[in-house]
Amino acid sequence: MPSTRSRSQPRILHPLMGANLKTLLALLRENGPGRYPLHLAIIWATAIARSPFSAFEQWQVARSPYPQSKPPIFIVGHWRSGTTFLHSVLSQSPQFAYTSPLAVGLPWDFLTLGNALRPILESALPKDRFIDRVPVNPDSPQEDEIALASMQLLSFYQGLYFPQQFTKHFNAGIFFEGCTDTEIEAWQQAMVLFCKKLQLQNPDQQLLIKNPVYTARVRRLRKLWPEAKFIHIYRNPYVVYRSTLNFYDKLFQELSLQAFDQVPVNEIVLESYPKMIETVLEDTAALPKEDVAEVRFETFEANPIEQIKSIYSQLELSGWETDLPYFQRYLESQKHYKKNDYAFPSEMIEQVRDRWQPLLQRWQYEPPS
User: Phi then psi for 233, rounded to 5 degrees?
Assistant: First the structure.
C-alpha cells in the first residue's frame, strides 16, 4: 500500500541503535546499506561505542543462574486487536514485570549502560506512540519485538527497516518460513536471554509479555516455557484491517531505511491475518483450560474490571483483591483517551468479508456503522 503521507526521513534515533555489531553486519549484508548514510553512521557509531558494555553485560548475565520464578504470561492477538490496552491495564499490578522502553532500546545493555544513562535516555522518549497517541513514559509497558530485532535476524521489523525485502522478512519473522534451524535457534536463544535479563531485573515478579508476533508461536513458546500461560484478545476484523493499514503506513514513515512504496501491505495483511488467527486458535485449543484465556476486545473495553477478574479466575492467578485498586486507578486516568477514527469504504468491507468470512462468522462481527 503506497503511503498516504509525503515521504520524510526516518527518525534519527533509530531502533537499530540498540543492535549489536554482528546483527547489524548480517542485516546490511542481506539488505544493502539503505539510502540514509547519516542514520547508518549513527547506528554504527552507537553500536561500536556500546560494544564494551554489551560484552560486559553478556558476561555478567551468563554467570548468573536463571531466577526461579513463575512462568511467563503472554498476551497475544493480531496487531490493533487491543493487545496494548490489555497489556497496559494488567501491567499496573505489582506482581507483574514487563518490558520497559529502556529494555526495548538497549536489549544488550539495559542492565548496565541503560541504568547508568537512565535520566538521559528517558528524556529522549517520545511523549506518545505515533501510531495511536498512547502516552509513553519511562515505565510504559512495551512489546519485546524491537528488542529481539536488535539481537538476531528473524523479525518482521527487519522488513520495516529494509522494506525492499519486506515480504521475505515478514514471513520469516512471523511464521519462520524459509528459515534454517540455525536461524530459529538463534531467535530462541535471544528470546530466552532477553527474558532472563528481564527476570534478573525483576526477580520477584512474574513476566507479562505482549507481542502480536507470538500469536503464531504459542506452541513454540510452550516448548521454551512448558507452563506458560496465554491471553488471546481479538477484535472486529473490519476494524483490525483498517487500523493495521494505518499502523504500517506510520511505521514505514518512521523506521524505513529504504523506499517502501511498492510493499503490498494490503495483500500481506489479508493473507496473514487468518493464518495467524487459525494458528493461535489451534495451538491454544490444545492447552489446559487454566493456561489460556480468550477475550473479546469490545467486551473488555466496555467493562475492563469484570474482564480482568475473569482472566484472573480462568488462569488461576492470585492477588485479585490486592491488584484491583491499581487497575481502577489506571483506568480512571485513561478515561479521556480517544481512539483513532476511521472511514470504511465499501471496497474495503468487501475485501474483508470475502477473505475473512470464517472468522467473521465464528466471532459474529458485522461491518462498523
Answer: -110, 135
